[in-house]
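call fold(seq) -> tokens
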Amino acid sequence: MTQTIAFIGSGNIGRSLARLAVDAGLDVVMSNSRGPETLADLIAELGDQARAATPAAATEAADLVVVSLPFHAYDKLPPEPLRGKIVIDTMHYFPERDGRIEELDERRTTSSEMLQRHLSGSHVVKALGNMDFLRLYSSARLSGDLERSALPVTGDDAVAKAEVTRFMDTIGYGAVDIGSLADSWRHEAGTPINVLPYVSEPPKGLNQEQANHWMFNAPAAVVSAVRVKELTDQATRTGRVGLFLEDLFPVDS
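ret:
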């Protein structure tokens, strides 16, 4: 697989994945909308295998590009520099943050299909966005480890999905192909596979404040490939769009 991974977006998910890539011996090129100079601290933390660039320059350095932005910024991504590239979409649509998008609220399409439509010359694969950033970094395990978790993958290009699967294996995760970008709603925010399965079950009787604390401090749970398939099969396109902190754990009234 490619030895250099480009990142557009340097938020929590992007940072965790960049750390995993560096730990696995890959080179990373980080970028954001504010300019390479704002990434100096992160690059120093990542070490000699990392450098900063503009989004356009970062994409030139690699065939595999991780996009980790607030979804409302998806149409600011530059289509031409990303033409021909494999784009890993880690983004989720949150109406309260991103503004209402009628196509998504009415479930006529998926956020990943919208990204693919914008990046028509790229090969979009949705992956690596359904764990919280803390456990995404701490739960990575080598192939064969009994505590290695799997994550769902969707995309329209089989070759691109295979390359993303290899990248996931390299940084410490198994992959479960659950279909095309039209199926990507099955691992969007708020679905059964999103976040919670990878968190240890909380104690009974927590109030909301305690539940929120548990969410950010609890040990990780292992999710097998079989369990990924079970949970993504359980997903439905009903209820609210997105994930809400108060929905994470049921609490005593």
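Strands lie at 4-8, 27-31, 50-52, 64-67, 86-89, 123-126, 150-155, 174-177.
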